[in-house]
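Here we describe the complex-level prediction in full. Unlike the single-chain runs in Section 2.1, the four entities below were treated as one system.
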Amino acid sequence: MKSSQNKVTKLAAAITLLVKDNCHLSIGGFTINRNPMAAVYEIIRQKKRGLHLYAHSNGQGVDELVGAGCVTRLEIAYAGSGRFAPTCVRFRRAVEKGELKVEDYSNYQMTLRFMAGAMGLPFLPTRSGLGTDIIKHWGFDKALRKSDETLPDQKLTTIDNPFGDWCNSPKLVLVPAINPEVTIIHVQQADRRGNARIQGLTFADVEQAKAARHLIITCEELVEEDFLKQEPDRNQIPFIHVDAVVPIVWGAYPTACYKHYDYDPRYLNNYRLAAENEDKYQAYLIKKIMKTANHQEFIALNDDEHLKSLIADPETGYATGLKRN
Amino acid sequence: MKSSQNKVTKLAAAITLLVKDNCHLSIGGFTINRNPMAAVYEIIRQKKRGLHLYAHSNGQGVDELVGAGCVTRLEIAYAGSGRFAPTCVRFRRAVEKGELKVEDYSNYQMTLRFMAGAMGLPFLPTRSGLGTDIIKHWGFDKALRKSDETLPDQKLTTIDNPFGDWCNSPKLVLVPAINPEVTIIHVQQADRRGNARIQGLTFADVEQAKAARHLIITCEELVEEDFLKQEPDRNQIPFIHVDAVVPIVWGAYPTACYKHYDYDPRYLNNYRLAAENEDKYQAYLIKKIMKTANHQEFIALNDDEHLKSLIADPETGYATGLKRN
Amino acid sequence: MPPALKETKMMVKKETDYSLREMMAIAAAREINDGEIVFCGTGISMLAAMAAKNISAPQSTIFFETGAIDSRLEEVPLAVADSRVMHATAVNGGLAEAFATMQNRFTGSRVVGILGAAQIDIYGNLNSTVIGDYQQPDIRFSGSGGACDVASFVNRTIIFMQHEKRKFVEKLDYFTSPGWIDGPGGRKRIGLGPGGPETVITNLGILRFAQESKKMYLAATYPGVTAAEIQQNTGFTLDLGEAEEFPPPTAKELKILRERCDPQRLILN
Amino acid sequence: MPPALKETKMMVKKETDYSLREMMAIAAAREINDGEIVFCGTGISMLAAMAAKNISAPQSTIFFETGAIDSRLEEVPLAVADSRVMHATAVNGGLAEAFATMQNRFTGSRVVGILGAAQIDIYGNLNSTVIGDYQQPDIRFSGSGGACDVASFVNRTIIFMQHEKRKFVEKLDYFTSPGWIDGPGGRKRIGLGPGGPETVITNLGILRFAQESKKMYLAATYPGVTAAEIQQNTGFTLDLGEAEEFPPPTAKELKILRERCDPQRLILN
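The structure predicted for the assembly as a whole is:
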């Protein structure tokens, strides 16, 4: 699959093929930017269950998957959508109700865990976390970890620096690698073989992509290979990592896609309001997601003028002057 | 220094100020590409002695510094200049004569050592080297390492994976961080504050740059800050790491600078021939380096037509059709 | 919130021409030195960094954990991943680069981090994860995000807090981010480098940490707030002896904050 | 070089229309499967990868430790850092990315590495560091470079060697890069993953490793070379029983190698 010359796939087919119930999935993006939302909604439509989800500081994608009941276990550093939801609402509710098992790490620890996976290493070290409850409290206990070979045997561990006090670091936290079965990221441009270019901040998407056994790339624009190869310094992901390429405009909506469109403040605010009320949330799920056949229909729920207001200014990369209250 | 708004410095002044006798220096580039040669020659002119040099797979810059007697200790993965000198000649001679203490690592180990330095970590792990003499034989022995606090107490060490067999890695090699006192790299573009853009492969330059206490950037082009900020996705080094910016055209010559000029096969071949003979080498040193006041004079030893033949084709980034025998 | 505090809050709002959030943003901005690298999180900390850059620290560098360095903020971002932080940066990297910059001693030692939290203890240790039992929490928050990393790595931190007794506690429900740990030498004992919390900015005043004991003390009260009121809203005993009255925002500070940093009042309201 | 070998070399050159270097490059190219990711070093290994891509494995991906992936090689590079490897790649990264790709099991398992060395032992372990004592070497070579890394990480390696007794040795003067270590299970015992040397291509013939013992055996001789000559130039005992005669380069292979890969004969000569 990864050596195919043409990996262009329909979204529904890619999700059906690669995202199985109970699988270990990671999604890219950060809070309200470049979440692979089209894929997230398709996973919800296909009623995937029991997902073991890895995310970073994420945000809309995580909250929707959790809210729709797709996720059983979550490993994450931060579940928030910036000013639109300092703590993701459905996430908070699921944790407080005991419906979601969470393993907490810091942002850098999660970055290093994906980076270790991408580097083919079992762990990476950091000083972050020394002395804190992130080390002491485990969301997944020893028994669970022992019973499930898809989990490392420890949440993390600390060691004495084998090089003494080299770099003034007497102790280090070691965080275990993540190698998701599937990673899904949304990028600005990709070609048929899977070479991909992210514009703006890459967050931890590149590490998440390379750490995964299978990689689905959704992209705003499908471009010619020669176009990407003209400026390879601007590309981050070579095709050798990629299983499926799904061209899908507005693929990150309602989160932002730098240089293409902004996040949709109206949608995100309405989402939060719906998420805070059980009935409203079920109505939201049905109306917005389950009753739209695909992302195109979902996007078409917006009138053109509203969508136009979100289009990024080519200079700044966001919708300058967008009303964001 | 690092927060100055204008770090533009003359090369001689930057070297005088930051590269002291016996200091720990690292130079960027790889074999015959983007070595900071103008800086290397200036170090030779200033007769620096006792340098502890870190390099990667380098190449022309290392061999000239070693040949000129500037270097006492060298930590390196590969001392070669591709087809022009599969093993660097003056390096080989110095090692065989016992004039140069060398600590051997693999390429990835050196990359990880610089990366650890850049990440503020005392070490990074890898599986590379398990079972080999790179682990067993130390160029710098325990006594030397104990007597010199600028060196880690071990060349490297191996540990059992604290996460059992997670990622099928029962054992890991840990390589200690390098934090050079000074790193010098040559880049295509930089601004006065020190923001820098490398075109083409970055080798390990970014890691070397960020690992260092002080950083000198030599650049082909001094550009406006706004120019670099228009496409920040293409920049690698933010000004916060940088101490001095030295604009110097042909600054990597006789090694290549992608999109600017190619390596000079005639120079590199002549260099090898000179390097193989003691008298010729001393004559080379005097004529080419010590008797030229600066890099401009050194470059002016070439006639314009020859230099013109090395200019990179804007499309491919190298001198297409260059006679390279 | 106790009735006394509500009154105080309204009093401040009525007697002067600035809100408490404005006061807090300006107080933090004044803590930033010119030339520093300023790590900001979402919300008021971003506004503080923007205010500092536009008022008193024009050579400070705004820096986000998402990988943006020296962002040119023409509109206030509503998250650290907002596309607004990507505009005209020095480099657009990712999280790996951003946290390495903080863990790296040559750069990390020049970073000031601005953080918020749900709970703080007398040594400035922070909780941003849960209230109640970790396994069955009464309230679940977002989690560490970059807070633990920043608090572990950088030279000094400034912390925003809502000043309530249940937030200034003897013992954190969950210890997310390290402050001075358990007092002098605490960071070193657990393996951390120098650094640590310097200032806590609340809706009632400014608190700092004693040089010797590393314990939080009251450094300043806002106009119209008394030291006793602050103690009343704090779950541990504060040294009140050093408290001064905080100089309120100047007209110039307010003008820049309102007109230049957040004209839409996306954060200020 | 023993006289017998010199003769052989000249004989081959005379009797046929190809040089030994051409034979070696073609032999290696034939080892590469379509769709594989080909790691190449400097010199003849690069030529082998170019030949494979242009002849039999058009979907193979050329990949350099310097960080270039899927380079469009229009001229033969003279070093792995040659600007020619940077042209029209999929991504221009650095060493960190390149070696991570090899250490990463999902990608590393699809990489075939082409290496050279100064010495090889019967298990395909390599020396590219020194001849003689490590502290006071008789001959110093370049050192590992990426060789140890590639040999540690990737699925399989192809090794180029000059066939001389002092290069095919019982015991390496320095063990730079792991092959099969000390036989079956050797890699696993020291903590390495699967992978290991598959083929050794010399100026006399082709050697492979026995499935069971992991010992090198003679798989093929070049036209005009006898198995006995090869044993004579090898410092350990080879199983010669499987040796076949190697099919010489075809006219098509030679034409592409010469005209498309190295028309200036920068590597071939």
